[in-house]
Design brief:
10 helices; 22 strands; alpha+beta; 478 residues
């Protein structure tokens, strides 16, 4: 039996409103295995009720929804006052088992417990996924924000899962990259003391700030796509644990003069756990960004990390640029089916201002067949370069020689290079001043017409003067 005695996390909760367990709250942790309700002590929700069977009913995920199913109990299960064999649970639905009345709260927003982990004080709950709580925290010793991934009491890893997590921690601990938040500390020696502490850049998640970001100019969103592609390459340095991605996994930090800065955690315990047990398809955070190979039942162990990551990053980028998910809106099962069957329209068909090379890359990264998705630096770097801000000064190499020029000649203005048009490679700024002598000005036709009488008079005077001189000389000679 697992009873939550303190408020912690964002998760589905069964709250007892009537019966001997009145006031207690039971957490529905698992997105993979059913949560059993009954009188038996080995059930997840143990009710002190004589009219309740030992294993009375269970709650399980199905295509993004929660279902309750009666397990052949003696007295039956009532959902919203009606007897059912199986029914869909919605927020605030009532469940009656024997003399106990429970309310299903699908997203109970609860503050974190008042506790510290590795000297980090838990400040705010970001989310809960499959028994792992993700907290915003502050570590006084480092004087910085950190993120804490914590397994719920009794849910700590063991066996193969523990080995996988420890291997992942070793891989992620030494990573150093501007967009990746590396590991500060981890502890998995005790099932009731299992946590991971990561550095944090601070700021809300990309999901929380999505509405404001979609309202920003295309140039600002293209810069976020550039950073997402950089993270795509950087996270490939951590094999096997960094895929797929969702909006919740990115933090957005605003920085004056440079726009928004994205960062992601080097290691995501909820993602690692969901990938291992196949529960990612049941989590709404991943629905719009889940590659086809992870969108249905099956062994996810053979999935190629870099290809899964490429798909999810492309789907997120598509959403940021077009304003809508790649597979549109709808029920979870429909969206997952579209991931398997449909190819989205090119991004620049929705918005013609989106650069063609960006649209083409995203289309290729959203291919259904993993092998056809670009994921290598030589395939992605050219687009990253085309999106880079045009602020660097490029030193020209080779045999270029500046032309000589008088010292008082005004210098050419190179402080504001022309802006590159959308879809073109940015033009570098030349670091050496190109000093050119302007050609001598040629007189205009109007100016020639104005000065014509002057020249005519001068020639006439010269002609008249020369004739007079000749006359005097000739007369004198006689």
């Amino acid at each position: 039996m697992l009873v939550i005695e303190y408020n912690t996390g964002t998760m589905p909760v069964l709250r007892v409103r009537k019966g001997k367990n009145e006031g207690e709250a039971y957490t529905v942790f698992s997105r993979k295995n059913p949560t059993v309700l009954g009188r038996g002590e080995d059930t997840e929700v143990c009710l002190d009720d004589n009219r309740c069977s030992r294993k009375h009913a269970h709650i399980m995920p199905a295509s993004g929804n929660w279902l309750i199913q009666d397990l052949g109990s003696s007295n039956g299960t009532l959902l919203n006052g009606e007897k059912i064999d199986q029914g869909r649970l919605q927020d605030q639905a009532t469940i009656q088992i024997g003399n106990s009345l429970l309310v299903f709260e699908e997203e109970e927003n609860l503050p974190p417990p008042r506790r510290e982990i590795y000297g980090a004080r838990l400040l705010e709950t970001e989310r809960e996924e499959g028994g792992v709580f993700v907290y915003h925290a502050y570590q006084a010793a480092l004087d910085r924000a950190v993120r804490v991934d914590l397994f719920a009491e009794g849910q700590g890893p063991a066996g193969e899962l523990l080995d996988q997590i420890q291997d992942a921690v070793k891989s992620a601990a030494s990573l150093k990259q501007d967009h990746i938040n590396a590991i500060v500390s981890s502890e998995f020696s005790d099932i009731n003391k299992s946590y991971l502490v990561l550095k944090s850049q601070g700021g809300p998640s990309l999901e929380d700030g999505l509405a404001g970001i979609l309202a920003e100019p295309l140039a600002a969103r293209l810069d976020l796509v550039r950073q997402l592609l950089l993270i795509t390459l950087a996270k490939q340095e951590i094999p096997g644990i960094c895929f797929p991605m969702s909006l919740t996994q990115f933090q957005v930090q605003a920085e004056t003069g440079t726009g928004r800065i994205l960062s992601a955690a080097a290691l995501e315990l909820p993602t690692l756990l969901g990938l291992r047990d196949g529960s990612l398809r049941h989590l709404s955070a991943y629905t719009n960004y889940l590659p086809p190979e992870l969108s249905e039942d099956g062994d996810a162990g053979a999935a190629q990390g870099e290809k899964v990551l490429a798909y999810s990053i492309a789907a997120i980028s598509y959403h940021l640029l077009t304003g809508a998910p790649a597979m549109g809106q709808g029920e979870t099962r429909d969206i997952l089916e579209k991931h398997r069957e449909l190819k989205p329209a090119p991004a620049n068909l929705i918005d013609s201002n989106i650069p063609e090379e960006v649209s083409d890359l995203l289309g290729k990264m959203l291919e259904k067949t993993p092998a056809e998705r670009p994921s290598l630096p030589e395939e992605i770097d050219p687009v990253i370069s085309s999106l880079a801000p045009n602020t660097e000064v490029v030193e020209i190499q080779g045999d270029y020689q500046p032309e000589s020029e008088p010292a008082d000649q005004p210098l050419a203005d190179i402080s504001s290079p022309p802006l590159a048009r959308t879809g073109q490679e940015p033009k570098p700024v030349i670091s050496r001043t190109r000093m050119e002598s302007p050609p001598p000005a040629r007189p205009s036709m109007l100016k020639n017409l104005v000065t014509l009488p002057f020249w005519a008079a001068l020639w006439a005077a010269l002609f008249y003067g020369s004739s007079k001189v000749a006359e005097i000389l000739f007369t004198g000679a006689q």
